[in-house]
């Protein structure tokens, strides 16, 4: 017996053939939001921690809010970036597996969610009465989206834009909590960000598979990026040393002065990793490289002890 009545029917609620179900799509959206990159937003803790006010409930709440809103804003820009780069990502051996490039997450869905998250961050700050934080978040979004659609293709501007995003994170932590931001602090953060970003580009240049077809890499040389890295590192260490010696007294001075040693050691470790071509993901280095972790832990311990003893 044959006919339409005898043909098997798909189960109700089952996704159509060739289409991923809602759960894989949701996982793809989460992957495109890049939660592993949220570690960068811990920079918002720097200003409250160095002021010795992180244990204060109002400051802790303001810092947590700032961190959460930067995670929302960053995820929005990552989704929009994946939509903008989808065509280029499909031609890359590794990036073609990204959810948007592979077709797992539809581009209109990613673009819509990205726009929603990007808009939600400054609006959330305004709703919390944090207009200064809203302005910094708006500046971060302008810079991030400018990088996505234009600046990433302009040599020099791509490095400056990424470093600027790091500096805005650190600035936001102080503004959202009403704490003073010193010139020393901003200089160290900006120079450190330039060091890390230049190292990232150099590692990508040394390891072509990591660059993902980045256009600006064709305009850089390892020698140029190494000089940028060395200049930024030297300037950062000198600036940090001046801060450590001029802003503390008594036992606190000894501790902050001693913190220069793990800072220099961490910088040297980063130089070594970059020259091996494995510094293209700085956030991964912090999570995986044990010597770097030990240096940073010693640096933080000495600085925080000095702050609380002063």
Summarize it.
This protein is an all-alpha fold and 310 residues long. It has helices at residues 22-33, 46-50, 57-84, 86-90, 99-102, 107-127, 131-149, 157-177, 183-206, 208-211, 222-246, 250-258, 260-275, 282-288, 290-309. The model is unreliable at 1-17 (pLDDT under 50).
Descriptive account of the structure:
This protein is mainly α. It has a domain at 182-310. The chain is built from 15 helices and no strands. Residues 1-17 have low confidence and may be disordered.
For the termini, the CA-CA separation is 90 Å
Radius of gyration: 23 Å
User: In one word, what is the shape?
Assistant: globular
Helix proportion of residues, in percent? over 70%
DSSP, total strands? 0
**How large a portion of the residues is in β-strands, by DSSP E?**
under 5%
Largest sheet geometry: none
* Topology as a string of helices (H) and strands (E): HHHHHHHHHHHHHHH
Number of alpha- plus pi-helical segments: 15
Structural class: mainly alpha
Q: In terms of per-residue confidence, which ranges show pLDDT below 50 for 5 or more consecutive residues? A: 1-17
Mean of the pLDDT scores? 87
